[in-house]
Amino acid sequence: MKLRLRGSQSGPIALAEPLLPQDVITGAAVRERPNLFVIGCYDRRITFYSQQVRALSLVHALKELGYLNSNPRIAVIGGGAAGVTAAAAAALVTSSNVWLFETAGEFLSLQSTTERRRLDPHIYDWPELDTTDPIADLPILDWESGSCVSVRDDVLTGFEHIWLRVAPRLQKRPRHSVTGLEVAAGGYDVRYINLDAPAPEPGQEPTERFDMVLLAVGFGREPDEPVQNIQSASYWSDAGVPVAEYQGRPTPRFFVSGAGDGGLIDFVAAGSRNFDHAGMIAMIVNHPGIDDLSTVLAAIDIEARTADAAGARYDFMAAYDAQLFARLNAIGLVAAVARQLRPGVQLILQTQHAEMFEVSTSTLNRLAAYLTIKACDADAQRSFRHLHCDAVARIDPPDPAPEPAARFWLNCAGETVAADSVIVRRGPSRAAARGLFDPHLAGFDDAHKEWLARHGDATLIPKLSSRARTLFLEASRDAGIPLAPRWQRHAAQQLPISIQVRRNTDRLRWSGAIAAEDLVCAWSDDQAFEIILPDGPDQLGAAAGAILRVACHSRVSRLHATPALWTQHVRALSLDSLHAEGMTMPTIIGGNPGGAAQNPVEVAPDILARRIHRALDAWLLDQLNAHLQPFITSNADPSRPVGLMVANDLRAAMAATWVDWQASFADDPGLLNHFLRLMICAVDDSENRDAAQVLVGPTKWKEIIRGTAVSLAIATAWQTTSPKGAGPGNLMRVRDGDSPWSGHGCAADLINGNDMALCAASYMWQTQFVILIVKGTIEVARSAERAFAQIDSDQPSLSETDGAGPVIMSINRDFSKAVAAGLDALRELLAAVEARHFEVLEEAIEKGGVA
To answer: What average pLDDT does range 341-349 have in this prediction?
Structure first.
């Protein structure tokens, strides 16, 4: 096995090179059966992507070594990932007739029913380099990570493109059940039944002769009742994914049987408050400090595979406890997982062996299960048990029952176990799936095991060689195969979409290929738009500001309008804005490029503006949540827009507060719009509404994130503070025994054209407290503003000279230290801020009385 070395701070890790064509043939060929090959059915580390790579590597090897020179008739048996890929590849690089047989009514049937299961091309090999890359990057039938349904759609779209260009040589045969394979002169007779035709008499099934057969029969399906009297939904269905705790059980009990990847994934899902497969992956692989543990994880895997090759089992739990647990705790990953768990959850994992984890499973799934176990162990309200026994049986409820009412009672090696839900993931019956071909496969299992042992990681993590990639890319280009769907989507985003908005009496006429709400694609997908505006901004009313908000934050959209009518107006709201720095002015081009007359809709200007703003705000809320959730969970802060390290207890409290805030924002679009607008603009009046609204978008994304995070931290410690939907301000603090305070959380750059840090103290704020998040620090301004000079340099509470102004809090070093120290430290700091405010106010009142 050839190796290359990947350097790291802790030492090199050996990575396998792609197998040579002859090695690929050796691993797939059936001895004593010329031109009969097996794809993936006996391999380990089975993923959708690896099966595709195995299929492409085999077809390339067959082509390279001359097996396909005579353009043999080829039967591919099995319409899963390997079979579909092998059939398309063979038909593309030869002039052969290729038949693809599949018993189900459609190809890739396993992946056709679940949106909640996720397919990732490389994550199975984490923590190797580039395994978080979402792109499969295959030369044909390419895809990107996503739900099973979306990946299946992309692959089958690519297959159809190839089929259309090589038909009739590529024959699709869904609902054709192969019933026999017999050696014949020069090849094989494949006997089958067309399930859509009248059933033939026994022995009279149709037969086709082929020169070559590729067996891609996979591994079969899971039994519907893997444990007698217990139905278990398939792993490949949404019904098989544990759902959120909607029954309100104080101690939900889950019994998970199976130590493979499916069992580990659903063990984590059972423990999770609301399982999100993609979110679980991101939380672990992006957690701060996890990269430093990659070498330890890889070394443990090498030890395990070495033991496995010697016929010994390996205790991953002991290795993780000894080498990883303390460091996982130190970086906060155990605590991060704990925050994702169901309250009071009781988990049991049953396996056949005393060693809980299998060497064949992925490192990521093992680690996720391990973290779930440790998070349960650290909480007295949760529990975890590992049971190992050969068989599990459902039994009648004991009388009297030792535990509260349970749906299931199980016997595991003589022990009675209660569970509310039972998830059985013991895998499909591989022997049954390939049983029809046993007469041909005698000895293949042993020979393949020898081959696996000889080539090691090159078979565990198959790689596609550069020569194979070139072969299929060139064949695709020569056949005129369209780009993969992911590339088409990318290309479509680059082609501008034309829309038009024009005045029609007292209403606006919207027309073009998309609805008004879809203008958000200019931000979410970087979609280019040609926005045609025959009238001036005054005639469009509030809709003019909404359209400019889209265009000012889009890199690739253009306005087609009369420059004399629009330039000054647009410039004032962008380049020359008095309320923000760094705003760019969208391109304004005269004339009408056309192409936007379809689907006209007439609507009032205010309603059109509201629709656009709501779509933009909803997208921003999703992006805000996508950043804040990992930050709250683990201090993850890509690109550092928040720029603060927050203690675990404070982040845990912030998580609960954010749940309430997010729900309020989602329920009340007006509240969200008002909050975001005042976060970016210090001026709070109706005359500046459009000027402030235009600022809220991706250009000010870092300010929005940081301002929200800081406001959230203060609101969490300064109970009870929440967003408010009308001025003055965008926050409201309910104070015990006193009137509520309005507040303004503000991350603006400028106030009426002046730098925020220099004029914040003298500005006439309309609220009782102000939370300032500025690029510099307020301390810089103290030398320029007399009011600041009267406050101690380490005190973040600022007020006007006479004490009559609001409590002004800035993000200085004391605040940073407090949030890093924890919830109590921040509460203490805020109490000091408030006390100082009232002290200054009282001094001002006394001076006024003396006067």
So the answer is: 93
Which residues have C-beta within 8 Å of that of residue 340, sequence separation ≥ 6? Answer: 272, 273, 280, 283, 633
What would the pLDDT profile of 582-603 be if each residue is shown by its tens digit? 888 999 999 888 888 889 999 9
> Cβ distance 246 to 415 under 8 Å?
no
The candidate with the shortest Cα–Cα distance to 286, out of 228, 233, 331, 234, is 331
For residue 517, give the nearest of 675, 669, 664, 661 by alpha carbon.
669
| List of residues 6+ apart from 160 with CB closer than 8 A | none
**In which region does residue 109 sit, left (phi positive, over 0), alpha (psi from -120 to 50) or beta (all else)?**
alpha
CB 232 within 8 A of CB 424: yes
Alpha-helix runs per DSSP H in 5-137? 21-28, 48-64, 81-93
Number of helices (H) and strands (E) in the chain: give both, helices first. Answer: 31, 34
DSSP state of 223: -
In terms of C-beta density within 10 A (0-12 exposed, 13-18 middle, 19 or more buried), how is residue 66 classed?
Answer: exposed
Let me know: does 809 contact 769? Beta carbons within 8 Å: yes
Q: Are 171 and 97 within 8 A, CB to CB?
A: yes
Structure tokens at 314: 């390996």
User: Average pLDDT, stretch 408-423?
Assistant: 88
Closest residue by Cα to residue 742 from 676, 806, 674, 654: 806
pLDDT tens for 178-219 read 999 999 998 999 999 999 999 888 888 899 999 999 999 987
Q: Is 172 helix (H, G, I), strand (E, B) or coil?
A: strand
CA distance 793 to 343: 45
- Reading the block at residue 85, the tokens are 């890929």
Class of domain 3-218+431-488: alpha beta
DSSP code per residue over 347-407: EEEEESSSS-S-TTS-HHHHHHHHHHHHHHHT-TT-EEEEEE-S-EEE-PPPSS-SSS--S
H/E run at residue 588: strand 587-589
CA–CA gap between residue 736 and residue 570 (Å, rounded): 46
> What does the DSSP 8-state code read for residue 272?
B
Amino acid at residue number 25: I
Instruction: Round to whole Å and give the CA distance between 436 and 178.
Output: 9
Q: Report how far residue 680's alpha carbon sits from residue 697's, in angstroms, rounded to the nearest whole number.
A: 9
What is the residue extent of each domain of the chain? Answer: 3-218+431-488, 238-427, 495-603, 617-850
Burial grade of 194 (CB within 10 A; 0-12, 13-18, 19 or more): middle
pTM: 0.70
Closest CA to 100 of 131, 55, 66: 55
For residue 731, what are the contacts with CB-CB under 8 A and spacing of at least 6? 711, 715, 721, 722, 723, 724, 742, 743, 744, 745, 767, 769, 771
Residue 804 clears pLDDT 70, i.e. is over it: no
pLDDT tens digit string along 708-743? 999 999 999 987 899 999 989 999 999 877 788 999
Q: Which amino acid is residue 473, in one-letter code?
A: L
Contact 462, 19 (CB under 8 A): yes
Computed on alpha carbons and rounded to an integer, the radius of gyration of the chain in Å comes to 32
